[in-house]
Amino acid sequence: MEIEGIPTVVKPNLEHCDKHLEDLEYKVGLITRDIGLASGIYTKSTTGVIIGAVGAIVLVGIPIILKAIIG
User: Fold this and answer.
1) 55: buried, middle or exposed (CB in 10 Å: 19+, 13-18, 0-12)?
2) What is the three-state SS of 15-65?
3) How far apart are CA 51 and CA 45, in angstroms?
4) Are the CB atoms for 24 and 66 separated by under 8 Å?
5) Residues 6+ apart with CB under 8 A from 66
6) 57 and 4 in contact (C-beta within 8 Å)?
7) What pLDDT, in 10s, does the model give residues 8-62?
8) Among candidate residues 68, 57, 71, 67, the one with its CA nearest the CA of residue 25
9) Cα separation of 47 and 35, whole Å?
10) Separation of first and last alpha carbons in the chain
11) How far apart are CA 35 and CA 28, in angstroms?
12) Is the pLDDT assigned to residue 2 strictly greater than 80?
């Protein structure tokens, strides 16, 4: 029985959020791979490998942080 004037609560669509989070993690993984490969190829030195590794760690950390924030 619904009482007039009392707001009802809508359950959140967590499946929709999880799908977007998985898509984001996949895309960040692709970007991480591309940046790591490109920086290693263009500089052709240990500097490129270091830049690629740091970039990969930063970009892989983004979905981990988002997952911790979103839940």
Assistant:
1) middle
2) HHHHHHHHHHHHHHHHHHHHHHHHHHHHHCCHHHHHHHHHHHHHHHHHHHH
3) 10
4) yes
5) 21, 24
6) no
7) 777 777 888 888 889 999 998 888 888 877 776 665 677 777 888 898 888 888 8
8) 67
9) 13
10) 33
11) 10
12) no
| Residue 24: count of CB within 10 angstroms of its CB | 14
Confidence (pTM): 0.44
- Please state the separation of Cα 58 from the chain's center in Å: 11
Tokens read off for 10: 């809508």
Cβ–Cβ under 8 Å, residues 31 and 63: no
Tokens 């619904």 correspond to what residue?
2
